[in-house]
Amino acid sequence: MPRTQRYKKIEKKIASDVQNGFVSFFKVIRNFFVKIFKVFDNKLTIMIVPHSQSKVLNIQTNIFALVLGMVLIIGIVFSFFYFNKTALASNIEINTLMNQNRETLASLDELRDENTNLLQAAKRFQTSLSKSLSLLGIDKNSSIAHGSISNSDLSSLFSTKSSVNGALTEFSDIHSLTSYLENAVQPIEQIGKMLENQNSLFHEIPNIWPVTSPNVHISSMFGPTVHPLTGQWYIHKGVDFSTWRQGDPIMATANGQVVSCGYDMTFGNHIIIRHKHGIYTRFAHMSTLRVKKGEFVNQGQIIGNIGNTGITTGPHLHYEVHIGSDVVDPIKYINIRLPK
């Protein structure tokens, strides 16, 4: 029992010491704030003395109010500079965005111009493709799928209506054009296959220009014309190619065999080539002959040079095309002009 009582006394003493410690701590804190309050509560008198004889203005306050006012003023000044700096940065960013927007609008205008040029080229492409398909007997409606453009037509590309979802008309046009071109691949491949299959036929028919000089031009067409020497009307049975000079090379216009090669009073130095399908070509007024009778020539092969032999008024090539016993207009067969 005595030991138990001793423990209780120790507990009471510890509890009393802790309590006294907390009380002392709070007293110290209270005394500190009381002193601070007394310091801030000290009265101040601010006197405003005018230079004139006016009444002196007395303003009574305390240190707390004065410090609080200074803090508020400093906060207001700091906020002013901070927001002013933020507003300046925002204005700079806005100006930058406006410049970028103007550049974007300018680029968009260029894009629209290019889009207009693209659509015009697409319209010409559609016309040429349709004409080619018709000439070759290919049904364009079955060859080009009914996709974004109905009836295989580009007419929808030239509509001024905007798309329902508000997208730019140009984007819709480009999408439609892309679909059309993708669907046009099949008929173009068919044309390529036909040309590949008929490649030999193109070499057998006189379909290229016999002269490729940069100065070449047609000086006299096929048909009725006035003879430059007699002044009388007559039927000109060929086409005259002139370069205003002698010596420019002359090419065979199709594969064939030379059946005549020589000179006479009318045609001067001349060559006649026999081709397949009953076609003959004549080259006249040549200065030199580079092939012999019986020789086989290929399309594009040099067979002679422009001259001034026979009955002529100047250096030129007189070129004729015969089918059987008929003389035909060579222009109807000349559709390919080789690079100069």
Descriptive report:
A hairpin with a 6-residue loop joins β4 (223-226) and β5 (233-236). The termini are far apart. The protein is elongated. The chain is an alpha+beta fold and 340 residues long. The protein is 45% helix and 22% strand. The strands form 3 sheets. Strands 3, 6, 7, 8, 9, 10, 11, 12, 13 and 14 form a 10-stranded antiparallel sheet that branches. Strands 1-2 form a two-stranded antiparallel ribbon. Strands 4-5 form a two-stranded antiparallel sheet. The chain is built from 5 helices and 14 strands. α2 (63-136) packs parallel to α4.
What is the radius of gyration computed over CA atoms, rounded to a whole number of angstroms? 52 Å
Derived from helix and strand composition plus strand pairing, the structural class reads alpha+beta
Mean pLDDT: 80
Number of helical stretches of at least 4 residues: 5
Helix content: 40-55%
Main pleated sheet: 10 strands, antiparallel
Question: What is the count of β-strands?
Answer: 14
Q: What's this model, at a glance?
A:
The chain is 45% helix and 22% strand.
Would you spell out the secondary-structure blueprint of this structure?
Blueprint: H1 2-40, E1 43-48, E2 57-62, H2 63-136, H3 140-143, H4 169-197, H5 199-204, E3 217-220, E4 223-226, E5 233-236, E6 239-242, E7 249-251, E8 256-264, E9 268-274, E10 279-289, E11 296-297, E12 302-306, E13 317-323, E14 326-328
Antiparallel strand pairs: 1-2, 3-6, 4-5, 6-13, 7-12, 8-9, 8-11, 9-10, 10-12, 10-13, 13-14
